[in-house]
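To: structure subgroup
Subject: Chain for Friday's discussion

All,

I'm putting the inputs and outputs inline so they're searchable in the archive.
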Amino acid sequence: LRESFWAGLSAWARQQGVVTQFIRFDPNLRNHEGWPTDSPSPGEGSRLLEKNRETVWVDVTGSDEDLGRGMTENHRRCWRKSLERGWAVTWRTDPEAAGLFSGVYDRSMARLQAGMRLRFTREFLSGLLSGRAGPWFELGLLAQGGEVKGGFVLARGPHWAHHYLSATDEAGWPDHANHFLFFSALVRARELGHRALDFQGGPPGVFRFKSGFGPGRSDFYVLKVVHDPARYGRRSEHFCGRRVEAPGPGHFPAYAVPTAT
């Protein structure tokens, strides 16, 4: 059945002028397993199933004490320090909360020199919380003395909650306020009835930080598909100076310019 699906999809894609396709699988559902990666017949393109990264998830069905025991000692110490220093997180779903967080987020992205695809506007954040697409997002506002210094956007699924984005001002760093923010997200995910929170992955430093909240790990896979090898080859030769007709390791498609993340 899957081979018939892929054969039909590739034929349709070529007719519509679709050269490549990039598919992201859910690391928690492990739905990459069993998908074919070899081409059933010549001319139907090619596929490459590739492990992109390891991700972190935390079981939130237990008590606060259970969540604490799942953390590393360093993370527990940082969380206690931020709690003693008066940091608090308030969860909101009103679009006005986006205005309180957008400045923090903008400063964080500027500090990281993030690409434009990560520069989400206040209007975009307000749209997430507006509920127009359903009650799928909540924003946790991190504050000290009533002044907002960070935020965590929690995305909700049927069973799992997900880390959509977050940011913290430098003012919160000495108190390890980010540890308090992420722990609060775990508690909120449990309050909303989810069984786990997917922190996703990230660069080495980010991954180490997320790993401190629990031992859960999953593998995130992507599928790179070239539907039209001839057109893909011509484009790669024109833009990269070398002809490539199949997906390979690294940036995909080969002729696209990578952007900063």
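Points worth raising on Friday:
Residues 154 and 185 are 7 Å apart (CA to CA).
The chain has a mean pLDDT of 90.

D.
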